[in-house]
Amino acid sequence: MSPGRGSFRARLLAAQAAHDSLLCVGLDPEPARFPAPWQGDAARIFDFCAGIVDATRDLVCAYKPQIAYFAAQRAEDQLERLIAHIHDVAPAVPVILDAKRGDIGATAEQYAREAFVRYRADAVTLSPFMGGDSIEPYMRYDGRGLILLCRTSNPGGSDLQAQPLAGGELLYERIARLAAGEWNRGGETGLVVGATYPDELARVRALAPTLPLLVPGIGAQGGDAQATVRAGWRAEGPVVVSSSRAVLYAAPGQVGGGAAAARDSGWKDAARVVALATREQLRAAQASA
Fold first, then answer.
1. What is the third-level CATH fold of 8-156+188-288?
2. Bridge-based pairing state of the strands 239-243 and 23-27
3. In angstroms, rounded to a whole number, what is the distance separating the alpha carbons of residues 269 and 271?
């Protein structure tokens, strides 16, 4: 079964080369932070996110809509429209549905159908903590990406991910080994590793030298772009560096959630400026890695 958009990994590498970019823009719409006069209007989620896409589509290697921001506003239909819009205006750019699903059996089959048939995503983020059979249903969709939580950017991730197993291996290390081995049957598995932990990022890269690494945490979360690229990027192992709030709410009055932002298209121009600067920062880091 496959929606027919080709290999996620191949599309990702092609987009990185075509746009000379490691940047993924996360689409996490918060209506309270929209530019006036849309502020607080959840019916404008598609319009806002589509505007961001239109302003940045030649600067990115991927887009990453976070499903919770849409579902909480009863805006799943707008998410469908948004992903269709990305496929239309930026057909070379893959879409990673940030859903962090994790279940087994028939339920996992339905989550896989949701991601790859309903939303037509090129990849989906998954929680692997229920084991291999919880990700197997997603492998049935040829060419779709499975990006597994490994060493996440939040401080509480250490509660479990940094715990030693019986043989001395840390849990996140075990996930990286499995993802690079028996869990990579279709060759489309990747890992989520936070930019806020560059040493662990380097360790994951050593254990999984060719897997795509989705790296959130730069920008608003404070991760360092130079350290991230140095630790994670390899010629044979792509890194996808995600920035969300710093790009989405770049206009004066948006960052920090304060007063209403500019009333005209200035918010799109501001998003483009930040996306361009972030891309250039990542390019410089890549050149010196």
1. TIM Barrel (3.20.20)
2. parallel
3. 5
Q: Report whether 51 contacts 13 (CB < 8 A).
A: no
DSSP string, 177-223: HHHHTTT-TTS-EEEEE-TT-HHHHHHHHHHSTTS-EEE--BGGG-B
- 29 φ, ψ to 5°? -75, 130
Residues 59 and 25: their CA atoms lie apart, in Å, by 9
pLDDT tens per residue, the chain (289 residues)? 445 577 999 999 999 999 999 999 999 999 999 998 899 999 999 999 999 999 999 999 999 999 999 999 999 999 999 999 999 999 999 999 999 999 999 999 999 999 999 999 999 999 999 999 999 999 999 999 999 999 998 889 889 998 999 999 999 999 999 999 999 999 999 999 998 889 999 999 999 999 999 999 776 566 788 889 988 999 899 999 999 999 999 987 654 333 344 446 799 999 999 999 999 999 999 988 7
Bridge partner list, 223: 218
64 tagged catalytic: no
- Residue 245: how many other CB atoms lie within 10 Å: 18
Give the single-character DSSP code of 168: S
Nearest to 146 by CA among 180, 104, 196, 106: 180
What is the DSSP code (8-state) at residue 94?
Answer: -
Are 221 and 195 in contact, with CB atoms under 8 Å apart? yes
282 in Cβ contact with 226 (< 8 Å): no
35 preceded by a cis bond (ω within 30 of 0): no
User: Given 5, 85, 100, 230, which residue is catalytic?
Assistant: 100
- The 8-class DSSP code of residue 133 comes to G
Q: At what angle do helices 225-232 and 198-207 cross, to 10 degrees?
A: 20
User: How many angstroms separate the CA atoms of 148 and 102, rounded?
Assistant: 10
